[in-house]
Amino acid sequence: MPAPRHLDDTPPDGTPSTEDPPDPRWALILGVSSGTGAAIAEAVARKPGLGVFGVHRGRYPDTARQVEARVREAGRDVFLRQADASTPDSAEAGADVLLERAGPRSVKLFVHAIAGASVGRFLSEGPDRLHPRRVQRTFDCMAHSFVYWTQALVKRDLLAPDARLLGLQNPLDQTHLGNTGLISAAKAALEMYVRHLAMELGPRGHRVNLLKFGTVMTPALHHVYAPEALAHLEARHAAMTPAGRMCTVEEVARFVSVLTGDEAGWFNGATIDFSGGMTLRLMDLVLNP
Ligand SMILES: NC(=O)c1ccc[n+]([C@@H]2O[C@H](COP(=O)([O-])OP(=O)(O)OC[C@H]3O[C@@H](n4cnc5c(N)ncnc54)[C@H](OP(=O)(O)O)[C@@H]3O)[C@@H](O)[C@H]2O)c1
């Protein structure tokens, strides 16, 4: 296997030169076919130039095809697996395919970008009651699967030297929305998994972090909200956020490229706040509307 290409070999615009030898390293991205996962796949294929092994269940076939095309345009290999990524068995089966495809010590970046959560209230008597099955599914998707995949990667010696493992968090640990208690609880579990895995994987040279960012517009949001509701959401975020606008998935994705680089190698067990100060002004907005 050729030696890994140094990060500095990538031209400043992130476009791989045709003279570059192909980078043998891969990004494993759970939730690759939409929103944040899709944007990260495209960004890390350009810089530092990773192949993309992604998992999704097939509900966004157009974006999945677009991700494949853009990764190939960047000159990188791509393999998208259609499967549920949330269970221990699916992590084992997915890691087997990844090993066959990419070989040992090939995963430079693992990003957990699946979004599968129930909104509702714990004590509701209505259809939004958070009954045990919803609790279990939400924790499997949003938290436990991070551990299952990490265990499956380590068991097969799939992590490349100095690998980066990344969970994604929102600012709902700082301020709460009434019907998102289950999501916040699962993200709290994810945060603790990240810290403990950082301690366990640190001595092996790997880094495990949680990236926190504010609301970004994704196809899923467009699917869920009517256009007027989306305009309202955007306006309220503009009022809240010091920069006067929402963050974009592309900004988040470019920052993941940075976190994959040598310069970010000392982050470990960290919750990295990339929220642009989204919750700083909430009290001000309530008291001085
Ligand atoms: N969007 C935001 O504003 C925001 C802000 C902060 C943090 N985050 C975090 O970022 C992550 C991604 O969120 P997003 O909004 O970008 O999500 P999204 O646009 O809804 O995309 C979710 C992706 O996960 C896949 N997926 C969902 N459940 C899956 C499962 N069980 N197995 C395999 N794939 C699955 C989806 O494809 P299929 O449905 O076809 O499987 C899709 O590719 C989440 O952890 C979220 O909490 C999001």
UniProtKB/TrEMBL annotation:
<dbReference type="InterPro" id="IPR051122">
    <property type="entry name" value="SDR_DHRS6-like"/>
</dbReference>
<dbReference type="Pfam" id="PF13561">
    <property type="entry name" value="adh_short_C2"/>
</dbReference>
<keyword id="KW-0560">Oxidoreductase</keyword>
<dbReference type="InterPro" id="IPR036291">
    <property type="entry name" value="NAD(P)-bd_dom_sf"/>
</dbReference>
<dbReference type="InterPro" id="IPR002347">
    <property type="entry name" value="SDR_fam"/>
</dbReference>
<protein>
    <submittedName>
        <fullName>SDR family oxidoreductase</fullName>
    </submittedName>
</protein>
<comment type="similarity">
    <text>Belongs to the short-chain dehydrogenases/reductases (SDR) family.</text>
</comment>
<feature type="region of interest" description="Disordered">
    <location>
        <begin position="1"/>
        <end position="24"/>
    </location>
</feature>
